[in-house]
Amino acid sequence: MPDLFRRQAIDQQRQKFHGAIVLTRSPQQAAWTVFFVLLVLALIAFAATQGFARQETVTGVLLPSGGVLRLVAPQAGVVLPGGAAQGQPVAANAPVLRLSAEQSSATGPTQSAVADSLTSRQRALLDELKQQAEQARQQAAALDARIANLDAALQQHERELALQRERIAVMQDIAARYPELVRSGAVSPVEVAEKNAEVLDQRARLSTLERQRLALQQDLASARAQRQAVPLQAEREGSQLRREAQALSQQQAENEARRETAVLAPQAGRIGTVLASPGQSVAAGQLLATLLPGGSGSALEAELEVPTRAAGFVKPGTLVKLRVDAFPYARFGQLPAHVREVSQSAVAMAPTDDTPAVTGSASPGGSSGVYRVRVVIDATDSAALAWRDSLKAGMRVQASLVAEKRTLIEWVLEPLAGLQVAAR
Question: Does the pLDDT at position 29 exceed 80?
């Protein structure tokens, strides 16, 4: 097969007057390339692992872990001397303050006069109750004696009846023999008639004894019925007297309650503040004192008011930094703490009341709706331990808590994520 190209053309292609192009790199260029590649990788790793946290600054107050109990006046009155002092430990159901509602008239203290009258009436009722019991005892003793006498009389009548029946039987036997004696001429018919009359007389006496026995049995049954009715009658009369005495006791208790009322401690603890002094007039429902349950050994916690916009990422265990207004943090530092509890619903704060009113929903701007967050102070910071013992319940605090954490790459890609969510 002949060649398609001439040999001269093929040789011309084989012969080259220049070599292949070779690009050379200097060591400096290679180093810069590696540096920039590592820098990009480092920036990507930094953006994926590092981020920033959005912090919220909220306010709150230091409270004992058991809370603060408010002691209010149950009724209007005047504070009496001898109440508990601030910081004094009290036991459960111990009186903290006493209120007097004594009213006076032209004749003197009204409540005292009523109390004396009720006491006299109650004493008279108690004496009447004792007399009624003694009367019932004497009546029962008299009936017992009568029953014994009637029983003895009845037994005696039974013996007389038995003898009378025997006597009648003997006389009837004798009278039955008289007809033979009349036929034999030993006795006259008149004597027979007299003997029969004697038998009839003895039978009449037997009937009289039986009527007397029946009367004794009726008297005995009546006496026994009366004896059984004595304790029932005494109990009925005593119950009536006791009811009257109880009514007087209730009136006396109500009078004493109007006269003097004790404000008791519902739990054992320590008096936080006393807001009423002896001689001061107070209204019903007025705050008189505060009680710290558990006494001085009760640990302090911070109760924070977290707005609704920042409560979404707050959960138990969230770290918190506390700054106490009474101790400037620039000098004393901050207290480390963590969230212990988060309320499940928003509350509307009442400036004059420690107890919030639960609302159905927060306000549109989130200004009035807040969540109650309980924060426990950690005991790990030795610098804070030096002055934390000086903390007192009621001190205002500011807290910085982490509301949200995001990495840099999440922040960069946030617009794309927003578009994806909007597309759904």
Answer: no
> Is residue 407 situated within a structural domain?
yes
- 171 neighbors 195 (Cβ within 8 angstroms): yes
- Per-residue confidence at 365, pLDDT binned at 50, 70, 90? very low
- Choose between 182 and 83: higher pLDDT: 83
Domain for residue 405, yes or no? yes
| Domain presence at residue 181 | yes
- Residue 352: its pLDDT value, please? 40
Orientation angle between helical segments 189-259 and 110-184, nearest 10 degrees: 170
* pLDDT at residue 342, rounded to an integer: 86
The first and second tokens of residue 311, run together, are 């409560």
Whole-angstrom CA distances from 251 to 112, 116, 127, 245 are 13, 12, 19, 10
> What number of residues does the chain have?
424
Residues 219 and 116 in one domain: yes
Measured between alpha carbons, how far is 340 from 310 in angstroms, rounded to an integer? Answer: 17
- 119 lies in the same domain as 247: yes
Residues 6+ apart with CB under 8 A from 303: 60, 61, 62, 63, 372, 373, 374, 375
Is residue 296 scored above 80 in pLDDT? Answer: no
